[in-house]
């Protein structure tokens, strides 16, 4: 597996659609590691959804003793590319343990590349929340290169920023820059909801921005959630409505990552929030919330696609 080519963007793989949005019960790692990940269950092969990979990686991180930087490196496209590159080695029975072994082999056989990826990830985390200030741009040029841009791309990126008049941090700016360089690819992607931190923060942000909140309860292994995103969140009109009129967040109820200093998982926290505050247990479901926390409207997958835009219009700000 030496000299493995890692493709950082737009990787296509195979995955299995689940038939329900139910959460798996907590199981010990010894049992869990012998199971197949969501993306390979039922022995069929279809287009992979990276949300399912993200969920599967939370199991790998919890049971495979991988740190948070490994979590950012190997989830999504990189893990997908490793699977593509090694499909003949893994055969048909792909378990969580097999993925852990695959990651370990890659790290051992590609030490220099792996360390470069770690350093780039750490630097990216360092700069992504920094505000963009053109007067200080050259001071972080080397960090942008370490994070993955070439020197030529940094020059183009700077020219792009000089044409903008936005109060961006570097994460927002690089995202916008990437979309400007490949608009055809970005226009065909579902709108990405940032992950919820707390309901209180969502409402506080909504109040500050004079908008309503839009909270999306979902799960990584949910076929209806993926259908909703593919059918509706790729629509440019819906994307524009959500971005202009809402502070929008997503809560994955099957997120297996542990809360800091607790035995409870993030998904369990979101499940409790949905049950106690919204009196519901199904996903996908979305709620429009006023800044003071009142439920203005709700929409579930069973309501049908034709009702979604009218649902959003109930919470649009002037």
Task: Describe what this molecule looks like in 3D.
The chain has 318 residues and is of the alpha+beta class. The protein is 47% helix and 9% strand. Strand 5 and strand 6 (295-300) form a beta hairpin. The termini are far apart.
Strand order of the largest sheet: 4-3-5-6
Q: N-to-C terminal Cα separation, in Å?
A: 56 Å
> Taking Cα atoms only, what radius of gyration do you get, to the nearest Å?
21 Å
Q: Residue share in helices?
A: 40-55%
Report the sheet-strand fraction: 5-15%
Low-confidence stretches: 1-26, 42-48
Class of secondary structure makeup: alpha+beta
Beta strand count: 6
H and E string: EHEHHHHHHHHHHHEHHEHEEH
Give the overall silhouette.
Answer: globular
Number of discrete helical segments:
16
The averaged pLDDT comes out at 79
Largest sheet report:
4 strands, mixed
Features:
single chain, 318 residues, alpha+beta, two-stranded antiparallel ribbon, globular
What's the gist of this structure?
With 318 residues, this protein is of the alpha+beta class. 47% of the residues lie in helices and 9% in strands.
């Amino acid at each position: 597996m030496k000299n493995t080519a890692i493709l950082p963007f737009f990787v296509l793989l195979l995955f299995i659609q689940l038939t329900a949005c139910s959460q798996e019960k907590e199981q010990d790692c010894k049992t869990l590691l012998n199971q197949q990940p969501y993306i390979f269950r039922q022995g069929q092969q279809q287009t992979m959804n990276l949300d399912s990979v993200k969920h599967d990686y939370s199991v790998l991180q919890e049971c495979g003793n991988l740190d948070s930087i490994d979590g950012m490196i190997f989830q999504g496209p990189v893990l997908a590319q490793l699977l593509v590159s090694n499909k003949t080695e893994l055969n048909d029975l792909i378990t969580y343990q097999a993925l852990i072994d695959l990651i370990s082999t890659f790290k051992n056989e590609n030490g220099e590349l792996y360390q470069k990826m770690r350093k780039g990830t750490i630097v990216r985390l360092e700069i992504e929340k920094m505000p963009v200030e053109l007067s200080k741009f050259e001071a972080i040029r080397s960090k942008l290169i370490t994070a993955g841009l070439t020197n030529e791309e940094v020059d183009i990126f700077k020219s792009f920023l000089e044409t903008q008049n936005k109060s961006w941090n570097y994460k927002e700016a690089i995202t916008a820059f990437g979309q400007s360089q490949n608009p055809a690819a970005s226009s065909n992607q579902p709108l990405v909801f940032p992950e919820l931190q707390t309901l209180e923060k969502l409402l506080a942000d909504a109040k500050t921005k004079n908008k309503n909140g839009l909270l999306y309860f979902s799960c990584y292994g949910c076929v209806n959630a993926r259908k909703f995103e593919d059918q509706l969140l790729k629509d440019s009109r819906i994307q524009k409505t959500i971005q202009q009129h809402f502070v929008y967040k997503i809560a994955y109820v099957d997120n297996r990552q542990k809360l800091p200093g607790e035995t409870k998982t993030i998904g369990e926290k979101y499940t409790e929030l949905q049950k106690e505050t919204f009196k519901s247990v199904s996903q996908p479901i979305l709620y429009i919330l006023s800044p003071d926390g009142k439920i203005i409207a709700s929409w579930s997958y069973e309501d049908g696609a034709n009702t979604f835009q009218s649902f959003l219009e109930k919470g649009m700000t002037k």
